[in-house]
Design goal:
This protein is mainly α. About 55% of the residues lie in helices and about 0% in strands. The chain has one domain. It contains three helices and no strands. It holds the Pfam family Phage_XkdX.
Length: about 50
């Protein structure tokens, strides 16, 4: 994935809402973040339901 300013903004947005206590699984399912980014943000690997 190319790291464009929009991709950086999207990742920072997801980090922010996670910090506020909101779940971010949907952003991974919608391909807004990668499994690696999910793990970076949450500290745990993504477990698909």
């Amino acid at each position: 994935m190319e790291v464009t300013p929009m991709v950086k903004l999207s990742l920072e947005f997801v980090k922010g809402i996670y910090a506020w206590g909101f779940p971010i699984d949907i952003y991974l399912q919608c391909k807004q973040i990668t499994p690696e980014q999910y793990q970076e943000i949450t500290g745990k690997p993504y477990q698909q339901a």
